[in-house]
Design goal:
The structure holds two protein chains of two kinds. Chain A is an all-alpha fold. Chain A has seven helices and two strands; from the N terminus they run ββααααααα. By secondary structure, chain B is α+β, with helices and mostly antiparallel strands. Chain B has a single domain, classed as Sufe protein. Chain: A. In chain B, 46% of the residues lie in helices and 22% in strands. Chain B has five helices and three strands, in the order αβββαααα. Chain B has a three-stranded antiparallel β-sheet. Classes of the chains: A mainly alpha, B alpha+beta. At the A-B interface, α5 and α7 of A face β1 and β2 of B. Bound molecules: FE2/S2 (inorganic) cluster (FES). FE2/S2 (inorganic) cluster binds next to α2 and α5 of chain B. FE2/S2 (inorganic) cluster (FES) binds next to α2 and α5 of chain B.
Chain lengths: 240, 127
Protein backbone atom coordinates (compact mmCIF):
# COMPACT_ATOMS: atom_id res chain seq x y z
CA UNK A 1 0.00 0.00 0.00
CA UNK A 2 1.56 3.23 -1.20
CA UNK A 3 0.57 5.45 1.63
CA UNK A 4 2.14 3.25 4.25
CA UNK A 5 5.53 3.39 2.60
CA UNK A 6 5.79 7.09 3.25
CA UNK A 7 8.49 8.15 5.62
CA UNK A 8 7.46 8.55 9.20
CA UNK A 9 8.35 10.68 12.14
CA UNK A 10 11.43 12.81 12.05
CA UNK A 11 12.46 11.49 8.66
CA UNK A 12 9.63 13.33 7.08
CA UNK A 13 10.56 16.08 4.74
CA UNK A 14 11.93 17.76 2.77
CA UNK A 15 10.09 20.64 4.22
CA UNK A 16 9.94 23.38 1.72
CA UNK A 17 7.69 21.36 -0.53
CA UNK A 18 4.45 23.21 -0.97
CA UNK A 19 2.36 22.76 2.14
CA UNK A 20 -0.08 20.19 0.97
CA UNK A 21 -3.77 20.12 0.46
CA UNK A 22 -5.23 16.93 1.83
CA UNK A 23 -5.01 14.27 -0.88
CA UNK A 24 -8.03 12.06 -1.58
CA UNK A 25 -8.78 9.33 0.93
CA UNK A 26 -6.34 6.45 0.48
CA UNK A 27 -9.12 3.94 1.07
CA UNK A 28 -12.13 5.12 -0.95
CA UNK A 29 -10.59 7.97 -3.02
CA UNK A 30 -13.19 10.43 -1.81
CA UNK A 31 -12.12 14.06 -1.74
CA UNK A 32 -14.16 14.72 1.32
CA UNK A 33 -11.43 14.36 3.90
CA UNK A 34 -11.75 16.27 7.17
CA UNK A 35 -9.11 16.58 9.84
CA UNK A 36 -7.57 13.14 9.57
CA UNK A 37 -10.73 11.23 8.82
CA UNK A 38 -12.51 10.51 5.57
CA UNK A 39 -16.08 11.69 5.74
CA UNK A 40 -17.31 9.04 3.30
CA UNK A 41 -15.73 5.86 4.65
CA UNK A 42 -14.55 7.13 8.09
CA UNK A 43 -11.04 5.76 7.54
CA UNK A 44 -8.27 7.37 9.52
CA UNK A 45 -5.89 9.44 7.38
CA UNK A 46 -2.18 9.60 7.70
CA UNK A 47 -0.50 12.91 8.52
CA UNK A 48 0.48 14.58 5.30
CA UNK A 49 3.96 13.94 4.06
CA UNK A 50 4.96 17.56 4.54
CA UNK A 51 3.20 18.11 7.83
CA UNK A 52 5.31 19.68 10.51
CA UNK A 53 4.95 19.71 14.27
CA UNK A 54 3.65 23.27 14.39
CA UNK A 55 0.96 22.54 11.85
CA UNK A 56 -0.48 19.48 13.54
CA UNK A 57 -1.10 21.52 16.67
CA UNK A 58 -2.46 24.35 14.57
CA UNK A 59 -0.46 27.01 16.41
CA UNK A 60 1.21 28.73 13.48
CA UNK A 61 4.95 29.15 13.52
CA UNK A 62 5.10 30.82 16.89
CA UNK A 63 7.88 30.16 19.36
CA UNK A 64 6.16 31.05 22.58
CA UNK A 65 3.79 28.25 23.22
CA UNK A 66 1.27 28.07 26.00
CA UNK A 67 2.05 24.70 27.60
CA UNK A 68 -1.50 24.15 28.75
CA UNK A 69 -2.92 24.74 25.32
CA UNK A 70 -0.32 22.46 23.80
CA UNK A 71 -1.08 19.74 26.28
CA UNK A 72 -4.80 20.03 25.70
CA UNK A 73 -4.39 19.69 21.94
CA UNK A 74 -1.99 16.84 22.44
CA UNK A 75 -4.54 14.88 24.45
CA UNK A 76 -7.28 15.59 21.92
CA UNK A 77 -5.18 14.28 19.07
CA UNK A 78 -3.88 11.34 21.08
CA UNK A 79 -7.39 10.20 21.72
CA UNK A 80 -8.27 10.57 18.09
CA UNK A 81 -5.43 8.37 16.92
CA UNK A 82 -5.24 6.02 19.84
CA UNK A 83 -4.47 2.50 18.60
CA UNK A 84 -7.08 1.06 21.00
CA UNK A 85 -9.84 2.55 18.88
CA UNK A 86 -8.56 0.81 15.79
CA UNK A 87 -8.29 -2.70 17.11
CA UNK A 88 -11.28 -3.83 15.11
CA UNK A 89 -10.41 -1.90 11.97
CA UNK A 90 -8.33 -2.95 9.00
CA UNK A 91 -4.62 -3.63 9.30
CA UNK A 92 -3.89 -0.53 7.23
CA UNK A 93 -5.85 1.67 9.60
CA UNK A 94 -4.14 0.16 12.61
CA UNK A 95 -0.80 0.98 11.11
CA UNK A 96 -1.76 4.55 10.37
CA UNK A 97 -3.00 5.01 13.90
CA UNK A 98 0.34 3.77 15.23
CA UNK A 99 2.34 5.96 12.89
CA UNK A 100 0.29 9.03 13.66
CA UNK A 101 0.61 8.40 17.37
CA UNK A 102 4.38 8.09 17.12
CA UNK A 103 4.60 11.27 15.08
CA UNK A 104 2.35 13.09 17.48
CA UNK A 105 4.40 12.04 20.52
CA UNK A 106 7.58 13.19 18.87
CA UNK A 107 5.93 16.48 17.99
CA UNK A 108 4.74 17.03 21.53
CA UNK A 109 8.11 16.25 23.06
CA UNK A 110 9.89 18.53 20.65
CA UNK A 111 7.60 21.50 21.03
CA UNK A 112 7.46 21.21 24.81
CA UNK A 113 11.14 22.06 25.16
CA UNK A 114 12.14 25.59 24.11
CA UNK A 115 15.60 24.57 22.87
CA UNK A 116 14.30 21.61 20.91
CA UNK A 117 11.41 23.64 19.57
CA UNK A 118 13.73 26.30 18.30
CA UNK A 119 16.19 23.81 16.80
CA UNK A 120 13.28 22.17 15.04
CA UNK A 121 12.15 25.45 13.54
CA UNK A 122 15.66 26.09 12.26
CA UNK A 123 15.71 22.68 10.68
CA UNK A 124 12.32 23.27 9.10
CA UNK A 125 13.40 26.47 7.51
CA UNK A 126 16.96 25.68 6.57
CA UNK A 127 16.61 21.96 5.93
CA UNK A 128 19.39 21.24 8.39
CA UNK A 129 20.41 22.35 11.84
CA UNK A 130 23.46 24.11 10.41
CA UNK A 131 24.78 25.10 13.78
CA UNK A 132 27.87 27.29 13.77
CA UNK A 133 31.02 25.53 14.98
CA UNK A 134 32.79 28.51 16.47
CA UNK A 135 32.27 28.89 20.16
CA UNK A 136 32.92 32.06 22.15
CA UNK A 137 36.46 32.00 23.51
CA UNK A 138 35.36 32.49 27.11
CA UNK A 139 33.02 29.52 27.08
CA UNK A 140 35.65 27.38 25.45
CA UNK A 141 38.25 28.31 27.99
CA UNK A 142 35.94 27.44 30.80
CA UNK A 143 35.12 24.09 29.27
CA UNK A 144 38.77 23.22 28.81
CA UNK A 145 39.51 24.21 32.36
CA UNK A 146 36.74 22.03 33.69
CA UNK A 147 37.83 19.12 31.54
CA UNK A 148 41.36 19.48 32.84
CA UNK A 149 40.10 19.48 36.40
CA UNK A 150 38.12 16.35 35.63
CA UNK A 151 41.26 14.77 34.28
CA UNK A 152 43.23 15.66 37.38
CA UNK A 153 40.49 14.16 39.49
CA UNK A 154 40.63 10.92 37.54
CA UNK A 155 44.40 10.81 38.03
CA UNK A 156 44.22 11.51 41.75
CA UNK A 157 44.59 8.48 43.97
CA UNK A 158 41.40 7.26 45.65
CA UNK A 159 43.11 7.41 49.02
CA UNK A 160 43.94 11.11 48.72
CA UNK A 161 40.62 12.24 50.12
CA UNK A 162 41.67 15.84 50.80
CA UNK A 163 42.84 16.50 47.25
CA UNK A 164 39.79 14.84 45.79
CA UNK A 165 37.32 16.81 47.80
CA UNK A 166 39.10 20.06 46.94
CA UNK A 167 38.78 19.22 43.25
CA UNK A 168 35.15 18.34 43.71
CA UNK A 169 34.47 21.71 45.26
CA UNK A 170 36.03 23.37 42.24
CA UNK A 171 33.81 21.28 39.98
CA UNK A 172 30.75 22.03 42.05
CA UNK A 173 31.33 25.75 41.60
CA UNK A 174 32.02 25.32 37.93
CA UNK A 175 28.76 23.48 37.46
CA UNK A 176 26.85 26.24 39.22
CA UNK A 177 28.47 28.78 36.99
CA UNK A 178 27.51 26.77 33.91
CA UNK A 179 23.92 26.50 35.10
CA UNK A 180 23.87 30.23 35.57
CA UNK A 181 25.20 30.73 32.07
CA UNK A 182 22.59 28.35 30.75
CA UNK A 183 19.77 30.28 32.35
CA UNK A 184 21.10 33.54 30.91
CA UNK A 185 21.09 31.93 27.50
CA UNK A 186 17.54 30.74 28.03
CA UNK A 187 16.50 34.28 28.86
CA UNK A 188 18.13 35.56 25.69
CA UNK A 189 16.45 32.93 23.64
CA UNK A 190 13.16 33.85 25.20
CA UNK A 191 13.71 37.44 24.20
CA UNK A 192 14.33 36.38 20.60
CA UNK A 193 11.16 34.29 20.70
CA UNK A 194 9.20 37.42 21.57
CA UNK A 195 10.69 39.29 18.64
CA UNK A 196 10.00 36.38 16.33
CA UNK A 197 6.40 36.05 17.40
CA UNK A 198 5.81 39.76 16.88
CA UNK A 199 6.77 39.22 13.24
CA UNK A 200 4.65 36.12 12.82
CA UNK A 201 1.51 36.92 10.95
CA UNK A 202 -0.18 33.58 11.35
CA UNK A 203 -0.08 32.72 7.68
CA UNK A 204 0.23 29.08 6.86
CA UNK A 205 2.95 29.20 4.22
CA UNK A 206 6.48 28.75 5.30
CA UNK A 207 7.89 31.90 3.82
CA UNK A 208 9.63 33.92 6.43
CA UNK A 209 10.77 37.50 6.22
CA UNK A 210 14.40 38.60 6.16
CA UNK A 211 13.95 40.06 9.61
CA UNK A 212 12.91 36.64 10.88
CA UNK A 213 15.82 34.97 9.16
CA UNK A 214 18.15 37.35 10.96
CA UNK A 215 16.61 36.32 14.23
CA UNK A 216 17.23 32.71 13.31
CA UNK A 217 20.94 33.41 12.98
CA UNK A 218 21.00 34.72 16.52
CA UNK A 219 18.97 31.80 17.81
CA UNK A 220 21.35 29.34 16.19
CA UNK A 221 24.21 30.98 18.01
CA UNK A 222 22.58 30.24 21.32
CA UNK A 223 21.47 26.76 20.29
CA UNK A 224 25.01 25.87 19.31
CA UNK A 225 26.18 26.50 22.88
CA UNK A 226 23.55 24.25 24.41
CA UNK A 227 25.34 21.05 23.33
CA UNK A 228 28.57 22.04 25.07
CA UNK A 229 26.82 23.11 28.24
CA UNK A 230 24.77 19.91 28.45
CA UNK A 231 27.82 17.84 27.83
CA UNK A 232 30.03 19.51 30.43
CA UNK A 233 27.27 19.40 33.03
CA UNK A 234 26.84 15.69 32.37
CA UNK A 235 30.57 15.10 32.70
CA UNK A 236 30.65 16.96 36.00
CA UNK A 237 27.59 15.21 37.37
CA UNK A 238 29.10 11.85 36.55
CA UNK A 239 31.85 12.36 39.13
CA UNK A 240 30.08 14.36 41.81
CA UNK B 1 30.65 0.37 17.31
CA UNK B 2 34.11 -1.05 16.88
CA UNK B 3 36.99 1.30 16.37
CA UNK B 4 39.61 0.47 13.75
CA UNK B 5 43.09 -0.60 14.91
CA UNK B 6 44.51 2.72 13.82
CA UNK B 7 42.04 4.67 15.90
CA UNK B 8 42.79 2.51 18.91
CA UNK B 9 46.51 2.98 18.39
CA UNK B 10 46.21 6.78 18.32
CA UNK B 11 43.84 6.66 21.25
CA UNK B 12 46.22 4.61 23.39
CA UNK B 13 49.37 6.36 22.23
CA UNK B 14 48.32 9.84 21.24
CA UNK B 15 51.05 11.71 19.39
CA UNK B 16 51.86 15.27 20.34
CA UNK B 17 49.35 15.66 23.10
CA UNK B 18 49.74 18.81 25.15
CA UNK B 19 50.01 22.54 24.74
CA UNK B 20 52.29 25.18 23.31
CA UNK B 21 52.60 28.71 24.61
CA UNK B 22 49.52 30.50 23.38
CA UNK B 23 51.16 33.91 23.69
CA UNK B 24 54.14 33.01 21.54
CA UNK B 25 53.93 34.89 18.24
CA UNK B 26 55.07 31.80 16.40
CA UNK B 27 52.18 29.76 17.76
CA UNK B 28 48.76 29.60 16.17
CA UNK B 29 45.91 28.18 18.24
CA UNK B 30 42.70 26.74 16.88
CA UNK B 31 39.82 25.78 19.13
CA UNK B 32 36.76 24.18 17.60
CA UNK B 33 33.83 22.16 18.75
CA UNK B 34 31.05 19.95 17.51
CA UNK B 35 27.77 21.45 18.71
CA UNK B 36 25.89 18.17 18.27
CA UNK B 37 27.92 16.10 20.72
CA UNK B 38 29.66 18.84 22.70
CA UNK B 39 33.17 17.56 21.98
CA UNK B 40 35.93 20.16 21.93
CA UNK B 41 39.41 20.22 20.41
CA UNK B 42 42.40 22.52 20.66
CA UNK B 43 45.18 22.32 18.12
CA UNK B 44 48.32 24.42 18.15
CA UNK B 45 51.00 24.90 15.52
CA UNK B 46 54.44 26.37 15.92
CA UNK B 47 55.52 28.01 12.72
CA UNK B 48 58.94 29.09 11.61
CA UNK B 49 59.73 30.53 8.19
CA UNK B 50 56.35 29.49 6.84
CA UNK B 51 56.88 25.86 7.86
CA UNK B 52 55.16 24.05 10.70
CA UNK B 53 57.85 22.79 12.98
CA UNK B 54 55.77 21.58 15.88
CA UNK B 55 52.15 20.75 16.67
CA UNK B 56 50.19 19.86 19.78
CA UNK B 57 46.62 18.97 20.50
CA UNK B 58 44.26 18.52 23.36
CA UNK B 59 40.91 16.92 22.65
CA UNK B 60 38.07 16.22 25.02
CA UNK B 61 35.91 14.03 22.92
CA UNK B 62 35.32 10.64 21.44
CA UNK B 63 38.03 8.21 20.36
CA UNK B 64 37.70 9.19 16.71
CA UNK B 65 38.15 12.87 17.50
CA UNK B 66 41.24 12.11 19.57
CA UNK B 67 42.67 9.90 16.82
CA UNK B 68 41.84 12.48 14.12
CA UNK B 69 43.60 15.27 15.96
CA UNK B 70 46.56 13.08 16.87
CA UNK B 71 46.94 12.10 13.22
CA UNK B 72 46.53 15.71 12.11
CA UNK B 73 49.43 16.85 14.29
CA UNK B 74 51.61 14.14 12.76
CA UNK B 75 50.66 15.12 9.25
CA UNK B 76 51.13 18.87 9.53
CA UNK B 77 54.68 18.74 10.86
CA UNK B 78 57.15 19.80 8.21
CA UNK B 79 54.43 21.11 5.93
CA UNK B 80 54.09 24.69 4.73
CA UNK B 81 51.00 26.61 5.79
CA UNK B 82 49.49 26.23 2.35
CA UNK B 83 50.07 22.50 2.32
CA UNK B 84 48.59 22.08 5.77
CA UNK B 85 45.59 24.15 4.77
CA UNK B 86 44.90 21.62 2.00
CA UNK B 87 44.45 18.68 4.37
CA UNK B 88 40.95 17.33 3.95
CA UNK B 89 38.89 15.51 6.50
CA UNK B 90 38.26 12.79 3.92
CA UNK B 91 41.96 11.90 4.00
CA UNK B 92 41.68 11.44 7.74
CA UNK B 93 38.55 9.34 7.30
CA UNK B 94 40.38 7.08 4.86
CA UNK B 95 43.49 6.75 6.95
CA UNK B 96 41.57 5.90 10.11
CA UNK B 97 38.75 3.96 8.49
CA UNK B 98 36.11 6.03 10.18
CA UNK B 99 32.48 4.97 9.72
CA UNK B 100 29.94 7.52 8.44
CA UNK B 101 28.65 8.44 11.91
CA UNK B 102 32.17 9.50 12.88
CA UNK B 103 32.84 11.79 9.95
CA UNK B 104 32.08 14.91 11.95
CA UNK B 105 34.93 13.97 14.30
CA UNK B 106 37.40 14.22 11.42
CA UNK B 107 35.83 17.48 10.29
CA UNK B 108 36.72 18.82 13.71
CA UNK B 109 40.40 18.11 13.04
CA UNK B 110 40.33 19.77 9.62
CA UNK B 111 38.60 22.82 11.07
CA UNK B 112 41.10 22.96 13.92
CA UNK B 113 44.07 23.07 11.53
CA UNK B 114 42.43 25.87 9.56
CA UNK B 115 41.55 27.79 12.71
CA UNK B 116 45.11 27.49 14.01
CA UNK B 117 46.57 28.73 10.73
CA UNK B 118 44.27 31.71 10.58
CA UNK B 119 44.99 32.53 14.20
CA UNK B 120 48.70 32.53 13.37
CA UNK B 121 48.17 34.75 10.34
CA UNK B 122 46.06 37.18 12.31
CA UNK B 123 48.67 37.42 15.01
CA UNK B 124 51.42 38.20 12.53
CA UNK B 125 49.76 40.47 10.03
CA UNK B 126 49.71 43.48 12.32
CA UNK B 127 53.44 44.02 11.99
S1 LIG C 1 31.35 12.03 18.53
FE1 LIG C 1 31.61 14.15 18.52
S2 LIG C 1 33.60 14.44 17.87
FE2 LIG C 1 33.31 12.35 17.78
Amino acid sequence: MEILSQKTGSERGPFFEKPGVAPPCWNCASNNVKMYNCVSCTSIQQFLHDTDYFTIFNIGYTLHIDPENLEKKYYELSRRFHPDYYQNRSKAEQEISLENTAFLNKAYQTLSDPFKRCAYLVQLIEGDKNLPTEVPAALFEEIFEIQETLETLRDTDESDEAARSALKTVLQNASEHMLQFESEEKAQLDHLFTKWDALETGRKERDFSDAQKKLLVQMKQILSHAGYIDRILQDINAVL
Amino acid sequence: MAYSDKVIDHYNNPRNMGSLDKKDKKVGTGVVGAPECGDVMKLQLKISGGVIEDARFKTFGCGSAIASSSLATEWVKGKTLDEAFQIKNTEIVNELNLPPVKIHCSVLAEDAIKAAISDYKKKNETE
